Amino acid sequence: MLHFASLESPAPVWTLSPIEDAAVKTLRAHDPLTFEGDKADRLFEVLEGVIRVYKVFQDGRRQIMSFAFPGDIIGFAHEDTYSFDCDALVFSRVRAISKASLLRTVRERPELGEKMLAAASRQITAAQNLSIVLCRKSALERVASFLCTLAGRHQFLACSGTVSLPMTRADIADYLGLTIETVSRNITKLRGLGVISLPKTGYVQIENIQRLQSLADCEVDLH
Amino acid sequence: MLHFASLESPAPVWTLSPIEDAAVKTLRAHDPLTFEGDKADRLFEVLEGVIRVYKVFQDGRRQIMSFAFPGDIIGFAHEDTYSFDCDALVFSRVRAISKASLLRTVRERPELGEKMLAAASRQITAAQNLSIVLCRKSALERVASFLCTLAGRHQFLACSGTVSLPMTRADIADYLGLTIETVSRNITKLRGLGVISLPKTGYVQIENIQRLQSLADCEVDLH
DNA sequence: CGTATAATTGAGATTAGTCAATAACTGTGG
DNA sequence: CCACAGTTATTGACTAATCTCAATTATACG
Q: At what angle do helices A180-192 and A169-176 cross, to 10 degrees?
């Protein structure tokens, strides 16, 4: 089964909870979390919902770097200022934790540093996997991989086989490096193959997960 | 100017040198450094040369994740076993450092942990940038970006404007998500535009770096 | 010097993108 | 509850880019 960017981690291996000044922030759908250029003094741990992390270029093109789900950490990839925008796709809760306080805590508890490094490792692997997907896969394989990965995050299985799809076709396209039309055509193709169905908007019913995986995998079997 | 995967870091911000059991390993061209599936108990800091980090799929397709140059660290993205193969393109020296000993040292010197985290951050950014390049750029833009980044690593400037190109067209193709033919055609195109010339095999002469950058950039201006 | 490998170039096929029209869904107000 | 407007999704026809297959040339190495 193929894993996607920050959809990767099945569960948080570390939590920022013991850190005293961690503040939980509540976001409604479409609320921004950070703006590009903001001072990047905090990391965010997603507790609930889905956060969209993206970059908009001068010509209007947009690249979605990741959809961050509960357990994912946002902000590792930033030094002084955020180089990406983040907003919520649905109602979400994130725990904000200042880097300064995190580093203080790491000095006292070195094992937390190891865990952070492990989390960073997983993000590097995830980002590299995304590169592989973008580099080596056809449009159909990319869409199948995306749906496969969503299905793998079982917290998004509303009920057996039904997967919540809180992002628009434009979001999926900008994540997979395709156009809206190509995403739509390939979803239609998967529907025609009987692999998925669309019971209602915002949801996908996985009819044949083995078939979907074989369409997605194309021999890619990362970790 | 655009940055590429592990070509990213201009200089090592941290060094593993103070760690006692760090061993320097010498590799001739084409010598393997690690095999996929090996126990991933070590990181490698490239001291000299170029290391090719790649993954081969069952159907023979290959994705080069990075060309690691002096100052780059290999092995962050691995947990238990290496998920990629590494070998040397030219004569190279790498410092191998066991993760266990690194973690011991981090416990005594927390600031080293911060530096490692910063290095990991840069790698995440680098991997994400590669995704953007693969996702959003045309073949000509990718080739121009690649040459631009090579030129930016000044340790590879043999003399003014001449850049060593130790990798084959197949390597470049497998890094940029293109075919050998497309890479070759676009190198020819850049030559036709007077932007580069090929004085001898294994080297590129940058004739017009501004022009090369403007062909590469296409509004992407990451950090 | 000859052979094997690497690089270039050409012609045609394939894939995804573009532009355009239509359909479906969302939310608002009557 | 329905009609409307605005957004999102689907579908079609055509275009453009890259890939594939093939031939040729250049380079490296024994």
A: 100
What is the residue type of A34? T
What's the pLDDT band for A175 if we cut at 50, 70, 90? Answer: very high
Closest CA to A28 of A2, A51, A5: A51
Least Cα distance to A124 among B10, B63, B120 occurs for B120
> Which residues of A fall within a CB distance of 8 Å from B106?
110, 113-114
Rounded (10°) CA dihedral B43, B73, B84, A214: 120
Residues of chain A with Cβ-Cβ distance to B218 below 8 Å are: 59
User: Residue A124 in contact with residue B76, Cβ under 8 Å?
Assistant: yes
- pTM for the full model? 0.84
Helix-strand-coil percent breakdown of chain B, rounded to 5? 40, 25, 35
* pLDDT tens-digit readout, B172-196: 999 999 999 999 999 999 999 999 9
Report in angstroms the alpha-carbon separations of B159 from A35, A66, B1: 42, 41, 21
B156 touches B150 (CB < 8 A): yes
Judged against a pLDDT cut of 80, whether residue B54 lies above it is answered with: yes
How far away is chain B from the Cα of A114, in angstroms, using its nearest Cα? 7
Q: Which residue has the tokens 């126990």?
A: B39
Comparing B20 with A11, which gets the higher pLDDT?
A: B20
